[in-house]
């Protein structure tokens, strides 16, 4: 039997998912390589943290611009350009010989990363029929969960047995393949109506996002003084508040906060923000607990945490049937409770806990968190006018990035508070429990935003029986959401 390629509508989510996996993994793989790079450059490991923070600053600055560029130049043009920029930035990172050179290369790389996520999601939204959107979004959810888990152990393996430069060079084949497939299979959809660039709003929003993300990422780490960290966060919040005031006074804001008036989008963005705070803290807290608290090696720790990624992969096969049977509201309500409970379970782990039990909890938690992300990422666009899809993906991506940064900062702050409370300088196995319990409780608060959703929220996308009329079902299966 001759081999045949799947239709392009199935290939598009896979192509975008591969690019997102590259970006998500690269954001974390560098962490374990920093001490080695510091020795090569004759710098302190603390100074090398600039390689991470400057990447985050670049994300914060250029994220708001992604939707406007996609409408102006075409989604495929911006997406493929983002892959090229990210890949070239990776090559640059692999060839640097000093810290200033690495910082410049990471800033350039961050420009590509900022465009890749929201525009990649926009490509899927504009090419996949609504009836198939749940399955398509499941592809995009997996990289966000697997990348942060695989990154640290992979970085440790490469640094141990090869050169640290290979942590950047591994992006090249993925980037080249993604570029070739994107040019072949992704249509260059753009909006016929071109809005002027909100330059002032772009400047205000970028300053706010960069300050808030940079500040939250450095909470409790001792890299910056408490005064500087507080000033960054406060300044970021002030600029974001100023932007909210500005956005109400222009016709085409760079970040359209008016979209939050749509109930399903508001529940996904704001409720998802609260829920993701806990998820953002997990990649920071769990490796520390396993290594510092339980005394495991980085490789052993990575192999255990990888079970969460395995759970996320299995969700891909079940998301659509679950949402079709239960609907978005029921899934979000029940799944939030399950996910928060699984996070709280981490707080009961001890060095004597069997590894099989830890792996089992992480496996189950990874499955349900992936289901939650797929539900949130799909429901967000259920009632968005196709003309506003680019604005919606940009605003949603900004919220997700902020929540993950806030989660890392909150996790670090909770650990620091626990040490201060007990009067200790070194973390022990039991010091992680309060942090896990706190972030589980915060994630549970997202129920306040999911509960008001109507029972038939997103029925056109989920296809739940009894909530989707035959006319809508026929229309959604034959007409793409463009």
TrEMBL record:
Lineage: Bacteria, Candidatus Eiseniibacteriota
Cellular localisation: Cell membrane
GO cellular component: plasma membrane
Domain annotation Major facilitator superfamily (MFS) profile: ranges: 12-458
Transmembrane parts of this sequence: 47-70, 77-97, 103-124, 136-158, 164-185, 197-216, 228-245, 265-286, 292-314, 326-349, 355-381, 402-423, 435-454
Membrane topology: Multi-pass membrane protein
Protein's recorded name: MFS transporter
GO molecular function: transmembrane transporter activity
Residues in coiled coil: none
Phosphoprotein as UniProt keyword: no
The organism's place on the tree of life at top rank: Bacteria
CDD domains (UniProt xref): MFS_LmrB_MDR_like
Keywords: Cell membrane, Membrane, Transmembrane, Transmembrane helix, Transport
